[in-house]
Structures are given as structure tokens and as C-alpha cells.
């Protein structure tokens, strides 16, 4: 069985794939200074809760956009499993069906997303990842990663606003009844939820203008479902896109 681990800035998501489907998936909080021992306790308890996956795991693939945690995870995996993990990074990009122009300046989660989206569409596509950062990654008809946009994620924007103002509360991320907010909560929801759907749609419009073709659009990340109902371009949401991309990377490297 394959264990895929996606270490993001807010959440660490990991799942078990039995070569046919994802049989289990977990999401834990990212705490950048937790130690290898602490993560070992968490992994051991979750992975042995119903079925003993620790025994069954024979392949591991990891992406981390938190470099500090990669050390703790390497130590944890070394102690818990007997297989050597595949760590996604620039060294393996030449073996993938993707062209990565600037390998040292793109998050490994975006490489995994690109891998899964390109496998799914096989033509021009944009992945919108609603994580701590909101990212759009566009892949060409022939698998070249053409470029990335990075903006503050929805929760990141709200946190920054509430942290820097005296009177703004944190709000639920749902669309308000009207763009003309009649109270503080609706005003914030208007600015953040409706505003961000415009941001996403506008970036896709610009992409279409620049490339002369509308990309297929797929969304992922913890907050994808907030905007998918109101964005004019997001029709497909796949919460497992990053893990799926990691699985495809692992498969591709295995065949090499
Ligand atoms: N199932 C969920 N429902 C609602 N919010 C979620 C869910 N999962 C994650 N989140 C929130 O979505 C945000 C982005 O999560 P995620 O996509 O995992 O970010 P990252 O990849 O940066 O760690 C975080 O604030 C997280 O708390
Ligand atoms: C853009 C990101 C912060 C997104 O991270 P996330 O929101 O998924 O936690 C991450 O992909 C990243 O750190 N990218 C840049 C990495 C680099 O320049 O090497
Ligand atoms: K992510």
C-alpha cells in the first residue's frame, strides 16, 4: 500500500492507497516546530487505529512546502516504516511528464497538483488551490507548467484583516445575501467571498486572453467548496487532487 503525505502550511494531509482506491485519509494541523517523536505518536495512532497500515505500507511519497518539517518527517518515517520515502523535489522533475521551467521556485504541492490535473485533462488546464495561499497553476497542452499566481488564501486574508483592525470579527466563509453588505459580517463576506470569486475568475479570464484558449479549471484545497458554487469557471472540485498527484508521481518514478 502507498502512503502519500502532503505537508501544507495549515494542514498535513495523508492517505493510504491500496492500488485501486484511496482507502483512508487524514488531516492534521501543521505545527512547524512539533518534533519527529510527536508526529510519530500521531501517525502511529492514526495508521493503526482500525487496520494496521504501518505494516502494510510498502511505498511512501511526500511533498512538503514547510522545509523545517521535512527533517522531522524524515526522522519519523525512518523510525516508523521500513521503506525509503520518495521526497518530491527538483531532482525527480526530469522523470515526470511535466516541463518545470523554474524547479527551485515552485512548491512541490503545485507540482503534484499539476501532475494530477494534466493526467486528468491531457490539455491546457488551471489548478486553483484554496490553501493557506490561493494559487493558480496553468499547464499547457503538452504538459509544460506555464506559470503560477499566488494570492493570500481566504482564511489568511481574513486573519490578516482581523489581526490588523480593532473592530472586524472573523466571519463564516459563505456568500452574503447581497454584494451591498448591510452589517459588518455581510460586508466582510462581500469583500472576501464575492471578491475572491472575482479574483479567481479574473485571473482565468486573463489567462484565456493571453493564451487564446480557455483552460479546463479544477479546484482543490481545504476551502475549494466555498467559492466553487459562485465562480463562473470552477466546475470541478477534487479534494484529493494533491494526494492523487503524489500517487502518480510515485508510480512514474517507480517505473523509471
Ligand atoms: N474540510 C475542510 N473544511 C473547511 N475548511 C477546511 C477544511 N480542510 C481545511 N480547511 C481549512 O482550509 C484552509 C486551507 O487548508 P489546506 O488546503 O489544507 O491548506 P494548506 O495546503 O496550506 O495546508 C485552512 O485554513 C484549513 O483550516
Ligand atoms: C505557494 C505555497 C505557499 C502554497 O502553499 P499552501 O497554501 O498549499 O500551504 C507553496 O506552494 C510554496 O511555498 N511555494 C513556493 C515554494 C518555492 O518557491 O520553492
Ligand atoms: K495544499
UniProtKB/TrEMBL annotation:
Cited Gene3D superfamilies: 3.30.420.40
Amino-acid positions noted as binding substrate in the UniProt annotation, renumbered to this chain: 107-110, 184
Keywords: ATP-binding, Coenzyme A biosynthesis, Cytoplasm, Kinase, Metal-binding, Nucleotide-binding, Potassium, Transferase
InterPro entries for the chain: ATPase_NBD, Type_III_PanK
Gene Ontology molecular function: any one: ATP binding
This protein's pathway: Cofactor biosynthesis; coenzyme A biosynthesis; CoA from (R)-pantothenate: step 1/5
Annotated residues for binding of K(+): 129
EC number: 2.7.1.33
Gene Ontology CC: cytoplasm
Sections of the chain in a coiled coil: none
Location relative to the cell: Cytoplasm
GO biological process: coenzyme A biosynthetic process
Required co-factors: NH4(+); K(+)
The reaction(s) this protein catalyses: (R)-pantothenate + ATP = (R)-4'-phosphopantothenate + ADP + H(+)
Active-site residue numbers: 109
Entries under Pfam families matching the protein: Pan_kinase
Binding-site residues, ATP: 6-13, 132
Cofactor remark: A monovalent cation. Ammonium or potassium.
Primary localization class, coarse: cytoplasm
Biological role stated in the UniProt entry: Catalyzes the phosphorylation of pantothenate (Pan), the first step in CoA biosynthesis.
Subunit structure as annotated in this protein's UniProt entry: Homodimer.
Family: Belongs to the type III pantothenate kinase family.
Name of the protein: Type III pantothenate kinase
Source organism phylogeny: Bacteria, Pseudomonadati, Bacteroidota, Bacteroidia, Marinilabiliales
Amino acid at each position: 500500500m502507498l502512503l502519500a503525505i502532503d505537508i501544507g502550511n495549515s494542514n498535513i494531509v495523508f492517505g493510504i492507497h491500496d492500488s485501486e482506491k484511496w482507502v483512508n485519509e487524514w488531516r492534521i494541523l501543521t505545527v512547524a516546530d512539533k518534533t519527529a517523536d510527536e508526529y510519530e505518536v500521531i501517525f502511529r495512532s492514526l495508521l493503526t487505529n482500525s487496520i494496521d497500515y504501518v505494516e502494510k505500507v510498502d511505498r511512501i511519497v511526500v511533498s512538503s512546502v514547510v522545509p523545517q518539517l521535512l527533517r522531522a518527517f524524515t526522522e519519523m518515517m525512518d523510525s516508523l516504516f521500513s521503506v525509503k520515502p520518495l521526497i518530491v523535489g527538483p531532482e525527480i522533475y526530469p522523470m515526470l511528464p511535466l516541463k518545470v521551467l523554474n524547479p527551485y521556485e515552485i512548491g512541490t504541492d503545485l507540482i503534484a497538483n499539476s501532475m494530477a490535473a494534466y493526467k486528468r485533462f491531457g490539455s491546457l488546464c488551471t489548478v486553483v488551490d484554496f490553501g493557506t495561499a490561493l494559487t493558480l497553476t496553468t499547464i499547457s497542452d503538452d504538459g509544460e507548467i506555464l506559470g503560477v499566481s499566488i494570492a493570500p488564501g481566504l482564511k489568511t486574508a481574513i486573519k490578516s484583516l482581523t489581526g490588523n483592525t480593532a473592530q472586524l470579527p472573523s466571519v463564516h466563509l459563505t456568500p452574503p445575501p447581497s454584494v451591498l453588505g448591510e452589517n459588518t459580517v455581510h460586508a466582510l463576506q462581500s469583500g472576501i467571498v464575492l471578491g475572491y470569486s472575482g479574483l479567481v475568475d479574473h485571473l482565468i479570464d486573463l489567462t484565456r486572453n493571453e493564451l487564446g484558449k480557455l483552460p479546463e479549471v479544477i479546484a482543490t484545497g481545504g476551502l475549494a467548496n466555498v467559492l466553487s458554487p459562485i465562480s463562473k469557471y470552477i466546475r470541478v472540485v477534487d479534494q484529493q487532487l494533491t494526494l492523487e498527484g503524489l500517487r502518480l508521481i510515485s508510480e512514474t518514478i517507480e517505473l523509471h
